[in-house]
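Archive entry: two folds, one per protein. Generate the first.
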Amino acid sequence: VQLVESGGGLVQPGGSLRLSCAASGFTFSSYAMSWYRQAPGKEREFVATITSDGGTTNYKHSVKGQFTISRDNANNPVELQMNSPKHEDTAVYFCKDGFLGSWGQGTQVTVSS
């Protein structure tokens, strides 16, 4: 299993950023996928998850209505659209597969003016 995140960077508060995770090594369309994040000095925490068919999503309460998780089972990526991020959303963002629970290497998101 290989998960490769991309799309991180510096974003201003109130801006937007779209993260992407390309997965390989398993039948992507058969498993749920999730995003987690880890801020400096803190434990890794759940952000969002999406079922294998994309029909159901769940979010950490503080990002609900702000972030959107989506997937394209034809072309593989699972994405996280971050709208109006706040300073406290600064973290390394990881995707996790529902097959083996593998992690990608993460992508840094910094929210700063």
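Generate the second and append.
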Amino acid sequence: QVQLVESGGGSVQSGGSLKLSCVVSEYVDNRYCMAWFRQTPGKERQGVASIDFSGRRTVYADSVKGRFTVSQDSSKNTHYLQMNSLKPDDAAMYYCAIGSSAWATHRGGYCSTSNSFEYGNWGQGTQVTVSS
């Protein structure tokens, strides 16, 4: 069974930075999509960023464009979310997720940040707290 383990969350002041990591135990499909989602209590899960297996296609939610960067190190089965200029609104539980890139075919290979159902494997989450 595929396992995803996030780390790197913590507490920072507004304007600070954090780098989240997601280690994937194995890739069932080497042509995958990977995404970061976040969720706060009482709110719907929100897609933050996605990246395809090649690393060439990334997508960002408007709220994080220019501040967050998604990347990966295939040799380490590890994906990253660099978060800069953090705001209190960024505080949430952050999850990484893996799915098949077949879903992305009709989007020119760009992986979704909207459709959580396209991702079949999820991590347990890492908490990010941002104080003003």
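Annotation attached to the second fold: The chain has no helices and eleven strands. Residues 72 and 79 are 4 Å apart (CA to CA).
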